[in-house]
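Memo to structure team: turn this sequence into structure tokens by end of day. - J.P.
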Amino acid sequence: MLSLRCVLACIVCVCAFQSTLEDKASNTKLLTRRISSNINVNIREHKLFESNLLRKYILTLQKNNIYKNNLIDSKLETRNSVLINQNNFLGSVNENGVLHEIPKTRVLEPPVTPFSLITLTTSNTAREHMPDGQADLARGQQDESDDDGPSMRGTAPPFVCDLCPTTVDSKNPLSPCTCVGNSGSLAGEISITCPPSTATTEQLHDLFTHTDFFTTSVFRFTLQGSNVSGVLSQELWGDLTFTQVIITDNKINHVDNKAFNNSANTLTLLNLDNNEISYYVTSGTDDLPKLTTLVLKRNRIPIVFTNAFSYASLTVLDLSSNLIDTIGKDAFAALDKLQELYLDHNLLTKVDDDCFRFFNHKPDNNFLTLDLSFNKISYISEYAFRGLRNVQINLQSNHLTTITETVFKPIILDSQFFVFLSFSGNNITCDCKILWIVEDSSMKSCFDNFMCVNLNVPVYLIDPEDLGNCTRHSHVRRFLG
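Reply from structure team:
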């Protein structure tokens, strides 16, 4: 009797297991019919955006042995990104592999440039990559799906939806400014652009503080070509935080040193080109730790004060086309990551000791570009560039008449000749004072082919004997002081 019961129990278990397999096969067939018949990766030529949802589809299909990795273009795997076409999106797959149609939502258009679209529809190209048997299944199920009534196409999921503020009647509460939601890796952020008709900072303050935002994370704020003047202060922005701020071609005359404190952990770019700013100093040690690019060109800044800048991540600083005639000691010393420093088209007449000293300069590219061209520099102190290594210094179109050995030779030697110095556009006299350049081809290669005004010949064509009666002894004595 016991044995008979065991046998019956085994039969029941086998039947139940077989039923489970049949149910799973049925579900898999349904999933195949509803998904594989609607899948095709149609990649166009532009930048791709991130989508966790497509990866969820892929994982679901792989889990059910419907879909293989080679169906997905390798670009998606390496870039880990995609933008879903709003008119061809099926819906979402939950963690159990159940497909749900997504209700209509507001889907973003690309804010700046066209991006690649991933359309989820079956084509012969997609079926060619399917394993044997699955292509036929997909082809047959495509035909069957046409008889199922309305298509399951919906719109993009909420994580790429527009988070811009709207009123009940869909009016723009930020008018005259416009808001665009961001997709992909920037999903959850918005970008705000204000037109030239924007009048005052008070108007901006009212917009930012009296609007109900779904998110306070603003990727890019842009204000260009307006008559907005006055001060950029911390109170102006309300609770908004920014990754990029572009306020150019306006009449801003002052930037409070705490203006962007709310964005301390997000701000990477601050462009204040072509305003009327006359003063800029950081508020303290590394108050904007993520800032990598600061553009202050075409303003009215007359002085760069001692220890003026203190941004640990800053790689580009543009102070060109201002009114700068004085640079304080250690003005840039705390900019450990600085790679590009532009001071061209200013009013500098000299470069004093330690103007360009750095405390712990270790840029990621191990190189510094320093542009001092188109100033009025006639004198460079012996220790003006003390400690600089691996550098390109542009001194074109100044008022220099010679190239001092004690200033530049230590830089070249300490950098193992990984230096380039530009002096074209100066009135350089080629005499015994530049013998140290002419007599050594390796040294000469560190300079541009500037013109020797007294010989009317470029320096690359000059030989030591062309400089006159220069003795090696006097040349060495001059270098040692």
